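Lab intake sheet, docking and co-folding queue.

SAMPLE TYPE: protein with bound small molecule
LIGAND NAME: flavin-adenine dinucleotide
LIGAND FORMAT: SMILES
REQUESTED OUTPUT: full 3D complex as structure tokens
PRIORITY: normal
SUBMITTED BY: R.K., bench team

The fields below were copied directly from the construct record.
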Amino acid sequence: MKLCNNYSLLPHNTFGMDVRATLFVEYDTVSELHDFLLSETFGKHRSHFIHIGGGSNLLFAGDYHGLVMHSAICDLTVVEDTPNSLLLRVGAGYVWDELVAYCVEHGLAGVENLSAIPGEVGASAVQNIGAYGVEVCDVVEGVETMDLQGNLRIFNREECRYGYRDSIFKKELRGQYIVTHVMYRLQKSPVFKLDYGDLRARVEAEGVPTLKAVRRAVTAIRDSKLPDPKVLGNAGSFFTNPVIPRTQYESLKEQYPDMPSYTVDDTRVKVPAGWLIEQVGWKGRVLGHAAVHDRQALVLVNRGGAVGAEVMELANRICDDIYNKYGIRIVPEVNYIV
Ligand SMILES: Cc1cc2nc3c(=O)[nH]c(=O)nc-3n(C[C@H](O)[C@H](O)[C@H](O)COP(=O)(O)OP(=O)(O)OC[C@H]3O[C@@H](n4cnc5c(N)ncnc54)[C@H](O)[C@@H]3O)c2cc1C
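RESULT FIELD (auto-filled):
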């Protein structure tokens, strides 16, 4: 187990915030985690701690005056092998895209559309990551966790209460359970989901669809649209797409006929946050060391040397402008860490 005081979090957040944690702890096994949770050290920091993964959905406001925990549990085992599917149990610290690569390499379908999403396995199940018409909850069969008293608990998919970029771990049980492993059910015969953007055209240009072709296409599209955090610090989509009552949308549509929407259910629609940001003129604009990306309005970037407060100020100004024009509140998908 690694235990470091006054530890730099620069390599642990894709926004590139140069901040420090009072104490950083990285454990390698479930039993190390158990012992640490029962230790005096954890007891001292229990009221102010955060568990991170790859730090690709976090925005540190400044130095973190508390404990930062990270899992280095990186095992991968086949739990069940049936004629149609394989059940994998994967450690929370396993890099998500390496898992996708493993699945594609072994002909296991279900996560290929989620290629090239930064972060780790533990967070995939907390965030319910999604892209190109697929959400990870489609393949999650169970989430193994430990509570802060060191007790194990397995949540089945229903108990995780998955929603759009949401789960029970982000809401009611926030900060109460640490994910140690995730179980994913992958299929041996792929059912391709290609009806999203120009994915089908890209994949079919290569011939008959294959898992590898989907992974290549998704990765190429993402590379062309999203800034690489190693070059320009960012945390992907900064805001979630707001879900509003259909009645509100219909009256807005009279005033703004080109306002796009996606149906959520009979009474609600989702409006793309990126479109709203563009309409209020923020796409490509700079505020101090922070900016809205010029190719993707949903992505806020660190132009170099930005501090968390600058990015938060930018986000607030965007939110206010959208609210003042449309009466719609957009909210950050990124977790603010103070
Ligand atoms: C360039 C870029 C593109 C992105 N594209 C997408 C995309 O297409 N789709 C998408 O859904 N997301 C996307 N994201 C966001 C991000 O990749 C996901 O939210 C990812 O799941 C975060 O994983 P992480 O390991 O970095 O978690 P972190 O950012 O470190 O943490 C995220 C949350 O999970 C919690 N957490 C982490 N590990 C554990 C654990 N073991 N136990 C309990 N809680 C834990 C943290 O406390 C925090 O609340 C993108 C980000 C970037 C930078």
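REVIEWER NOTE: The chain has nine helices and 20 strands.
SIGN-OFF: pending second check by T.M.
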